[in-house]
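Translate sequence into structure tokens.
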Amino acid sequence: MGLGGVNLTQLLIILVIVILVFGTKKLKNIGSDLGGALKGFKNAMKDDEGKTQNSQARIEDENDTFDVKAEKVDESSEEKQA
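Result follows.
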């Protein structure tokens, strides 16, 4: 038994039918297009990982902190200032 109950002879018959329907030239073009798409996807993933690492390094370098003091303000004093 092969994949999911499909044996080798059945796969060969399916392959012959696909070649007859699409032709070898169209299958070659589909294969090269698919390969190009996968290559582009891999390059995009590498670029994205590089950008993520660069941004993480930039964030670690820019550890700026801000000291903030919260104060309660009387509403009556705000009205007098306005």
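Note: The chain has a mean pLDDT of 78.
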